[in-house]
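Fold it.
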Amino acid sequence: MGLEDTILKKYFSDKTRLADIFNYYCFNGREEIRAEEIETKDSVENLVISDRLASAERNGTTLLLLGIENQKAIHYGMPLRNLLYDAITYANQAEALAKYNRNRNSRSKTTSGEFLSGIGKGQKLKPVITLVLYYGKEPWDGPKTLADMLDLESIPKQLQPYIQS
């Protein structure tokens, strides 16, 4: 967490820049996410991943959570690192739903599945999209997806659809 990291975090805290970056990479430059729809997340709300998340909101509804990682050196475990951050984000969402449901449903009936998970039937989590912005000097030669990190050659083809990648 050096000076460069601090500068980049400040640079990417600008909502117009964030919108431009996600529109460029995710929508081929079309303006699908507007700066005024981006809301940065409170550090208390997101715990260890607070400085990497924002949300795209439209008409008061969160559409998705946006994560951005700045990377100067090639990180050969980057897909796994992002998977961990994203999993924490999903777990935080699930915990927030469970807490909301416990408070709301304290007097109402829930199914055993709803009780076990804390999540009501039909409730959904918000998708998380994480972009990695690599600004190193060498061309990126690391994996870009989790599938790129997996040794699938010895796994029977019938089992491969069951492996999350």
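The longest helix spans residues 78-104.
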